[in-house]
């Protein structure tokens, strides 16, 4: 897409607010919920069954395999943890949900400053909250099994140090096989993928503190920068350099959660 405007990325710790131009991903699925709204030009989603969805605004549920072609679109993208309080406001099933034109129009106006230089972490977080508020509902929060809640707390306390399946099943009081099944039933993804997801966020926090990609990769538990890049690409469909390179975005801000 021919545009002189550059977008910006704001990272709020397991939450992403991104304004981007011409983004194209490879096929992927990830733990996050994705909210996509075009400001100019429609985008296309290619599903696992090769169905093509043309859209100006859509919410993609967690773990939904797809490829995004926004090559002719200027768009805002929000990604958030499906266990977060924000997601509890959104009424979703297992399929992408179209955003109504009236709400989409309001989001477009809110998101336009992402393509300028004036936003701070505080003002970007306000935009994020307002967009989520527009999509809110009275949905009853999903209840997660208490044993999985205990395991998640343990993971977040220990990571980036190794956390083993044996440790998690022991504190949960169930066998390793039962734990793996229960974890996937509750979280929607296998334990290993969830641990990688958490390591990606640790790497982002280290980048926030000024570390380079190599140092952040090792400190977050990846074998090297290439391992981090492969994991990032598998989960987001693009290389981390797309978001960290000055050629792609006008501003990248890692904000306090």
What would you note in describing this structure?
- By secondary structure, the chain is an alpha+beta fold.
- It folds into 2 domains: 7-141 and 238-254, Jelly Rolls, CATH 2.60.120; 146-232, Arc Repressor Mutant, subunit A (Orthogonal Bundle).
- It contains 9 helices and 10 strands.
- It has helices at 101-111, 121-134, 146-158, 165-172, 176-187, 191-208, 213-219, 225-236, 241-244, and strands at residues 7-11, 15-21, 33-40, 43-47, 52-55, 57-60, 66-69, 74-80, 97-98, 249-254.
- The strands form 2 sheets. The chain has a 7-stranded mixed beta sheet with strand order 9-6-3-8-2-1-10, with helices on both faces. Strands 5-4-7 form a 3-stranded antiparallel beta sheet, with no helix packed on it.
- A hairpin with a 3-residue loop joins strand 1 and strand 2 (15-21).
- It starts with 6 loop residues before the first strand and ends with a strand.
């Amino acid at each position: 897409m021919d545009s002189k405007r550059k977008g910006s990325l704001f990272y709020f710790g397991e939450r992403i607010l991104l304004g981007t131009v011409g983004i194209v991903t490879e096929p992927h699925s990830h733990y996050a919920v994705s909210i996509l709204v075009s400001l100019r030009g429609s985008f296309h989603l290619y599903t696992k069954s090769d169905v093509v969805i043309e859209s100006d605004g859509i919410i993609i549920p967690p773990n939904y395999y797809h490829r995004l072609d926004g090559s002719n679109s200027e768009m805002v993208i929000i990604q958030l943890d499906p266990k977060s309080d924000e997601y509890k406001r959104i009424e979703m099933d297992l399929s992408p949900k179209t955003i109504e034109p009236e709400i989409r129009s309001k989001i477009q106006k809110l998101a336009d400053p992402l393509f300028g230089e004036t936003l701070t972490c505080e003002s970007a977080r306000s935009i994020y909250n307002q967009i989520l508020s527009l999509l809110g509902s009275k949905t009853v929060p999903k209840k997660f099994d208490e044993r999985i809640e205990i395991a998640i707390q343990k993971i977040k306390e220990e990571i980036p140090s190794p956390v083993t399946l044996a440790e998690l099943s022991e504190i949960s009081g169930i066998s390793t096989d039962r734990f793996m099944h229960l974890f996937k039933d509750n979280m929607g993804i296998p334990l290993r993928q969830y641990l990688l997801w958490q390591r990606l966020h640790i790497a982002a926090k280290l980048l926030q503190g000024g570390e380079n990609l190599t140092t952040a990769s090792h400190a977050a538990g990846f074998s090297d920068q290439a391992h981090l890049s492969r994991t990032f690409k598998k989960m987001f469909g693009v290389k981390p350099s797309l978001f960290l390179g000055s050629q792609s975005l006008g501003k990248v801000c890692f904000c306090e959660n």
